[in-house]
Design a protein that fits this description.
single chain; two-stranded antiparallel sheet; 7 strands; elongated; YgaP-like_TM; transmembrane; membrane; transmembrane helix; Rhodanese-like_dom_sf
Amino acid sequence: MTSMNEMSFNHPSQTRRDRLKTIDPDSLNTLLSQQAVTLVDVREPSEHAGEKIPGSVLMPLSKFDPNSIPFDSNKPTVLYCRTGNRSAQAAQKLFAAGLDEVTHLEGGLSAWVQAGYPTEVNKNAPISLMRQVQIVAGSLVVIGTVLGAFVSPWFLLLSGFVGSGLVFAGITNTCALAMLLAKLPYNQRV
């Protein structure tokens, strides 16, 4: 059996941010095959329903409660999301709740898939939040532009507002529209 010390974790330093450890897909796959890790998906329910790493449990970041994480004293808990950004945010909540070390999958589900490891895919799940954001934001830009051209130039402010929101989301890596869409009932199905 492979121990945690044999895996390729980054070692923490003394600062809170540095206590966040990462694990690569190869090491995580080894631990999962040995049932030596608890894997927690912090993406939203629609994302988890659409594609997930087999054996993972859902604890969405939007409802993340450190007290509800299924900790097992005999095996470490690893967080993952799509790219590693949200799992790092969830880790900060665990640090705030008093944990000293938290591990997350480096590169998230994208890195897992790129490494060639299997996922469970549900073709009947809602489309991804990213695609929903693209559809809604793109539609608002088109509507604002058309109304601005044919009704009143003031409608161009709608297109400008949506474009500014997308720039802000790209710079901060935080998308308010995605968080809003994630709360819709059809995105809550698991």
